[in-house]
Amino acid sequence: MPGIALSQFENNLSLDPNTLIFLVTLPLVITIISFAKYIMGVKSFGIYVPVILTFMFYQFSRIDGGVSVWQGLKYGLFITLIVFISSYISYKIVQPLTLHYYSKLAIVTTNVTISLLVVLFILDLMDRGGILRVDIFSLILLASISERFTNLLASKQTTTALMLSLQTILLGMICFLVISSQSVQTAFLNYPWIILLSFPVNYLIGRFTGLRLSEIYRFRELLKKDSES
Amino acid sequence: MSYLDYWKNRKQVLGINERNLSYISEYNTTKSKKIADDKVLTKTVLNKAEIPTPKLITIIHNQKELRELDFSTLPNSFVLKPVTGLEGGGIEIFYNRDKQNNWIRADKSKVSPDEFYHHCIDILNGRYSIHQEPDSILIEERVKIHHEFKYYSYKGTPDIRVIVFNNIPIMSYIRLATKESAGKANLAMGAIGVGIDLAKGRTTSAIHGKSGYIEYVPGTKLRLSGLRIPYWSKMLQYAVEAQKATNLRFAAVDFLLDRDLGPLIVELNARPGLSIQLANDDGLRWRLKKATGLKVKDVEKGVRLGKDMFGGEIEEGIESIAGKDLIGIYETVTFYGKDDKTTATIAKVDTGADSTSIDKEIARKLGYTEVLDIIDSGIIPENVDYEEGLKIVRKLNEELTKKHDDVYEVNLVKSSHGMSIRVNIILKIKIQDTTYETKVSIFDRSGLTYNAIIGRKSLTKFLIDPSKIR
Question: What's the start-to-end Cα distance of chain A, in Å?
Fold first, then answer.
């Protein structure tokens, strides 16, 4: 099937090449997330949040004529931290108030939006325009992550919520590093059929019943014991 | 410890992947999971099978019912739960209410009627629901803590979980609330999980929070192991019956033990957590494998099988006492005195006596003349009554222990002829091959059959066989 290498279409299609790259590598990103969960035991907020973070890091890394991994990480982490910190602080403020849960959520999200606006405005004044290239869509997605985060803060203990967030951000970063690699992009554009590998690989991960890496650590004392029967 | 052992042992431990794929999906039908996820449905099904649960007060299905509910009809003490709640989220336990109609929690914090109303709205909106969907509120009677657990659990009632598979009890543990867990029996919040030996219903090893092993109730000298769980066999029976009634073939059955009503099932869980393995210091996997495919005719048989196959603590019990020497009722005891003086005599091993005592003659042979002089000096009265004795002992104790290095303690003992005052020294003694130091009192035993008796406090290192007479 070499005849359908997507890279050949790149110049002829009106499709944004970055959109194309993101689309063809999406199965890879999701496979990495599922591998991290079932084999390594990484806990993240579902599949949705790390995918969005990956996407956002990628958006930030775009520069004229290519990608800058460093810029992606720098701006991506910066914005993510603003979202998390502002959600955390605003949730802690509204937590003791006697309000309906969705109302608390709406207040938190409003605060996150305001924080993002203020930061972007300040950066614009300081002439650090690079970060402003982010499109409105990823900002909205990002603000919606704060909903998931707030939900977590409301239902779990703070330390658990923070640990989960940290793992989610790390996972997003790793996925971003993988898909922004030049060789991965070339491979996926030239041989798009490798997407099909997702089926057997995910089938195998899906049938895995062994201990996760995190469980080997959690049960290490039990595993040290002499085996019975 | 090699990596190979890790590799072999991993076969004993159940992980989340295997729990989900091989047990939950395999054995629990959607219908049965629905029963477990809905506390009202659980209650209905269990009550129909005549399995006791806490008494229902009322159910609030929606905001209209909440508005129409007359709060003054509620008792002063009750439990409020989201019907499809997860991991104890949203549960409130009220112990009383004050004159302003505030509800009072275990930690004395108050919940105003306004806060109470909003909490109810939150639950109805599905904030604690397993599927984040609109939910109902269950209000039931509060379970009163059983006196057996009073000093073990901080405020809240401990929660006993039995994992049942294929109608056989597989593993069990009790969760004790701590100050850290705010009176909630939730391990993630810092409660204590203590494994229970299935055969005997006694606690074994314990973990604090999600990891760390622990021996005592924090801040006390109460040992976590060896605690007897009341109604143990009854509980296992209800657990298996609950499994039969709901058709959940792999389930965790959670009990609370009421002071008056005994074991009550508060919740069924179709997705049991895995920390129970740490609390029991044993894996679930081999147990589940062993229970798979067995034909279990009735409830009694299931309970019997669980106790026999997984109540493995008996062997360990013998191991822990196996290091002790076996002694008889009469033993030759060697005493080690001052300046390498030793003497041996046949002593009576007397578990009826609290402590060890020797005749003055033995003390003399060992070189404790100074102590004997005190005893003979007449400052110690022969027979005293309790009140008077206490006073004298207090005075002598201070005087003599300060002045004489050999005197360890002066105490009051109950003897055949009322209360007596005894002078104690610390002596090295040897019984069979065991040499150790122990507290010994000296008095005139010349009229008695044995010039030394070995009491309970000196016998902790031995097992006593009454049929063994020298």
Answer: 54
What's the pTM value of the predicted model, to 2 decimals?
0.69
As for the ipTM of the complex, it is 0.80
The single-letter code of the amino acid at A139 is L
What would the pLDDT profile of B308-345 be if each residue is shown by its tens digit? 889 865 444 444 455 677 788 888 899 998 888 889 88
Domain B55-142: CATH superfamily, name plus number:
ATP-grasp fold, A domain (3.30.1490.20)
Examine residue A228 and state whether it is found in any structural domain, yes or no: no
A223: in domain: no
Nearest CA to B14 out of B260, B290, B231 is that of B290
- Tell me the C-alpha to C-alpha distance, in Å, between residue A152 and each of A45, A87, A160, B75: 9, 11, 9, 33
In this structure, is residue A124 part of a structural domain? yes
Q: Which residues in chain B have their CB less than 8 angstroms from residue A157's CB?
A: 188-189
The whole-angstrom separation of Cα B282 and Cα B275 is 10
pLDDT in tens, B269-310: 999 999 999 999 889 999 999 999 888 889 999 999 999 889
Domain boundaries, given as residue ranges, for chain B: 9-53+144-322, 55-142, 325-464
Instruction: Decide if B5 and A224 are in contact by the 8 Å CB cutoff.
Output: yes
With beta carbons under 8 A apart, name residues in chain B contacting A98: 114-115, 118
d(CA A37, CA A39): 6
Q: Which residue of A has its CA nearest to B290?
A: A229
Query: Which span out of A138-142, B169-173, B182-186 was modeled with the highest average pLDDT?
Result: B169-173
Which of the pair, A17 or B21, is modelled with greater confidence?
B21
Give the total number of structural domains in chain A.
1
Q: Whole-angstrom Cα distance, residue B238 to residue A146?
A: 44
Which is it for strands B325-327 and B462-464: parallel, antiparallel or unpaired?
A: parallel
CA distance A107 to B100: 31
- Decide if B5 and A221 are in contact by the 8 Å CB cutoff: no
Answer for the pair B246, B39: CB distance below 8 angstroms, yes or no: no
Tokens 């810092």 appear where?
B190
Q: Which residues of B touch A228 (CB under 8 A)?
A: 12, 282, 286, 312
Same topology for domains B9-53+144-322 and B55-142, yes or no? Answer: no
Residue range B325-464 forms a domain whose CATH class is mainly beta
Which residues in chain A have Cβ-Cβ distances shorter than 8 Å to B118? 98-100
- Domain span at residue A145 reads 15-216
What is the nearest CA distance from A11 to chain B, expressed in angstroms?
A: 45
- pLDDT given for residue B378 in this prediction: 79
CATH 1.10.150.120 fits B9-53+144-322, yes or no: no
Q: Tell me if A109 is assigned to some domain.
A: yes
Please answer yes or no on whether A219 and B1 come within 8 Å at the CB atom. no
Q: DSSP 3-state assignment of A74?
A: helix
Q: Is residue B350 predicted with pLDDT exceeding 60?
A: yes
Q: What is the pLDDT averaged over residues A105-116?
A: 90
